[in-house]
Amino acid sequence: MVVAMGKVVLLFLCMVLVVVPLACTDSIQKLEVQKHLKNLNRPPVRSIKSPDGDVIDCIHVTHQPAFDHPDLKNHKIQMKPNFHPEGHPFGESKVSSNSKPITQLWHQNGRCPEGTIPVRRTKKDDILRTSSVQHFGKKKQSSFPQPKPAKPLPDIISQSGHQHAIVYVEGDKYYGAKATINVWDPKIQQPNEFSLSQMWILGGSFGQDLNSIEAGWQVSPDLYGDNNTRLFTYWTSDAYQATGCYNLLCSGFIQINSDIALGASISPLSKYSSSQYDISILVWKDPKEGNWWMQFGNDHVMGYWPAPLFSYLSDSASMIEWGGEVVNSESDGQHTSTQMGSGHFPEEGFGKASYFKNIQIVDGDNKLRAPKDLGTYTEQDSCYNVQTGSAGDWGNYFYYGGPGRNPNCP
Asked: Which InterPro entries does its entry note (predicted)?
């Protein structure tokens, strides 16, 4: 209220007293940033300093930003899903070359108590790196891969500056998806570029009404202020226009888990020709309540996207995608050298290229099963590529990624 009143007074001074416009703009921006920080950073029960410089606030589960959403004002938190998908994942205990499980760096200095959730504290500098307070924590439009378009598509690369190497299924009703993804630290050329590896749960057309639920790992200097590899989620119900955001940076996703922080750094990471480390992510729709749940690993049910957030996904998904995405800003007139995955092409194989393994979908009977008729898609396979396969413990899998700029990708 104080911040709002301050903004009104400032606007009055600017208009009536003809204060220097630049000073007015700066002052109003400071007030907006202050207000946004106060909204995002709720009073913690405990705060934990992470070795990477993050501060993790343990806030009461009922105080999280989700409940600011107009459709969730009277929402009763569902503390566990009514149903898990049937069919246990295979091979999860046989992760090649792993010496210890994936954790998050902040765990070295403490844990959040029961009844709270860990939230990465947003800093003033995080918001100031974006073009505006309104755009903080949001993807730009046209950032989704559009395989096999119904009509000829304009040049996606120049249209959005995003490039992909993905595997996908379409043509059925899907009620979730699963994958195990190895984690890397791809090099990013420009601070405004990112590299991520994720699943997309998509509903609707690729127009202005696309519904999307996304989860995976990412390196994004613009969003986080460093080059750490971090667990993330995203959602939108209008093709990234006004709704949705990363992690808990707006109302929407309801977290119930006290152990894992969205947006926090993952450790350890895979090394080239050395140990490989991976994470497992499952997203599925609760057949009873209609909420979309997320599980991290075998033990951590993270929370859910409530059904009222969506239009098409209130029924089912019409496409599932797995794979990598980078921003190619062509800042120096050449293709970016931002890496996707490990930064190596799929043909290099295990220990060198990035992989998704045990990729599965959840069908109408709430059963996990192998996807049928997998398609692949990439805008420029000389920059980033994808190769699929199927074998034993790995089930359906694919290698993907690449270095970006190279002699064949100028």
From this structure: Glutamic_endopeptidase (IPR053168), Neprosin (IPR004314), Neprosin_propep (IPR025521)
